[in-house]
TrEMBL record:
Alphabetical list of PANTHER family matching this protein: MAJOR FACILITATOR SUPERFAMILY (MFS) PROFILE DOMAIN-CONTAINING PROTEIN, PTHR23542
Segments of this protein annotated with the region Disordered: 1-44
Stated name of the protein: MFS transporter
Record key words, sorted: Membrane, Transmembrane, Transmembrane helix
Pfam entry (one): MFS_1
Biological source species: Streptomyces similanensis
Gene3D superfamilies in the cross-refs: MFS general substrate transporter like domains (1.20.1250.20)
InterPro entries reported in the protein's UniProt record: MFS, MFS_trans_sf
Amino acid sequence: MPPSPPEAPEAPEAPADQTARPTGGAPATRPTADDRAAPPAPAATPSYRRLFALPGARAFTVGNLVARLPMGMFGVSAVVMIAGARDSYALAGAVTATGLAATAVTAPWIARLVDRHGQARVAVPATVCAVLGSLALVLCVRCDAPDWTLFAAYAATATTPNTGGMSRARWSHLLRLDPAALHTANSFEQAADELCFMLGPVLAAFLTGTFFPEAGTLTGAVLLLTGVLLFAAQRATEPPPRPRGRAKAPLRAPGIPAQLAVCVAMGAVFGSLEVVTVAFADAHGHRSAAGVALGLQAAGSCAAGLVYGALRPGGPAERRLPWCVAAMTALMTLPLLAAALTGSLPVLAGALLVAGTATAPTMITNMTLVQRRTPEGRLNEGMTLAVTGLLAGIACGSATGGWTVQHLTPTTGYAVPATAAATALLLSLAGRRRRA
């Protein structure tokens, strides 16, 4: 996606967890832990090499990537496992939908505890609870337990901590004096999200198809626990806990509700695109090719995110967001045109690859605004609310896309993500006007 037109650079806003610094003339004080952890003076040109040269950055990133990969595995693994054992995709879909709803309720609460008590103290027991829920689901399926036990077991996995949000919180803590480097870090995190959600379903399908139906869920549980333990062990880069103070809840912070509305609309883009692409490939007799097409869309987003992170886009994020969403809206018309004019799956896959290049820059810019507008000490909660908004949008988009392809045609279904992107554009413009 092309960067927005050059504008006068804004003064960098203080990130949510920046601590107070003594002004000139103040007596010297003993450095605090935050002061000792402060990064060196900002580099003129941020790069990924400089990013991972920070002490401890590589270690917590490796652990977080291991923990994040299962996020793209659990849904596919559960559907394959339950549908194979109970011969009901309706049951499998209902179970996973219940888990999604439970996550929407539980995730912000877990994130609030992380902010208040620290990542290691909360993330590890929350992960253990989620892993036990996954193991209980496997046992219930294997032992032919009543259907209601599947819902209860999968709902327990909703305590899975937002590992991506915790990683972004660490970058925000380490790079609080260097907004340009923080932009690069946020870009890497978004590219990592795309990579994990691109590889996760492929790995889950391989494990469940090659070995046994429960292999995907079991492997995901092991990876999640291992990754969180590795991540939590890196205490030197962990942001300090913020005991409950007078900071207002993120939902009441200026600008946050508008950003969450944009997240919901963008989630609808992703959810509908997935369902419609599967239906389109199935209608052309190549359902297995849907994964490849969606993988190309994620690959385009991943590549664009890395490139975007290496650049220094001009102008404040508030002004860049509508431009990014406008580019995503324009490019989301390409799959609709490819499906309507050619009906060719390879052409559609190419259109999805190009359309994906606008996804990561848009998500990076939106998440940057969420970080900046979240009250001090509530960063994990704010980031998790954004993810919850995305999940809610994905659920709505999936339902709308499924209804469209069922009652109309798969080709017409590609109008749903385009419409959702246009809605996100209107919401971003409205949010900017309210803050003007």
